[in-house]
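Dear colleagues,

As part of the handover before I leave the project, I'm documenting each prediction I ran so the next person doesn't have to rerun anything. This entry is a single chain, and its sequence is reproduced below.
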Amino acid sequence: MIRQTGVSNYTFGMLFRHAMNMMTGFSILPLQLANLMGFFCTAFGGGILVYVVGRYLLFGATVQGFTFLASIIVIFSGAQLLALGIIGEYLARMHFRMMERPTYSIREEIVPPDKVTT
């Protein structure tokens, strides 16, 4: 839709800041994405570590480069991200409970016929 008259006073930076506030202030989706990313990083690092150690135990050959060190770094980085995501999600849920909004709203109340007052 095109604006009929006038020009918006919002700059791109103001719109971006507003969008970020809306995404992080009313949703736990970014925290859930951090949880998933942390889990997958930890699993990926664990897979690399199993490959490196398995190759060493089975064939006696080490993997060239710094693969072992990189796998340890990825495991710990993923574990940190996973822990931060869990703590953040816990805090977000507490925040939503503290906002004192009802957990549900009643659209319509049905009154039994014997309770109707005219």
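Helices lie at 12-25, 29-59, 67-98. The chain has a mean pLDDT of 84.

All the best with the project,
I.
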